[in-house]
Amino acid sequence: MFSGTAAAGCTALGRFAIPSFVERFAQAGQPLPLITQLFASSYGLVWLGPLLVVAAWLAGHARLSALVGSAVLMMATPIAMFAAYLPLFRLGTLF
User: Fold this and answer.
1) Degrees to nearest 5, angle at CA 34 with 78 and 91
2) Alpha helix segments (H runs only) across the chain
């Protein structure tokens, strides 16, 4: 459940929030911050987390499954939030 929530949140940010920043930064002729560019191009990789959770659970490793799910949530969420908020801090310097 944790990894699915993280994957859904990262996908929502990657699909809906980040493209608006791409457009605004392109209009100003400035590149996006590197972390945001990396996140925008690879946010779909977070869906490997739920797949690993299910694979570990089906293999009979319930604790490993829980550990992977928790780790995905604890790593993916802060990275996604940082990548989404970093352009907001730089918007004031664009115009």
Assistant:
1) 85
2) 2-12, 18-28, 34-42, 48-58, 62-90
Place of tokens 């990548």: 83
Residues composing the chain:
95
Compute CA distances 1 → 5, 68, 70, 92, whole Å.
6, 11, 9, 37
* Residues 6+ positions from 50 with CB-CB distance below 8 Å: 3, 4, 7, 69, 72
* pTM, full prediction: 0.74
Confidence band (pLDDT; 50, 70, 90) for 30? confident
- Strand, coil or helix: 30: coil
Residues 66-82 have a mean pLDDT of 90
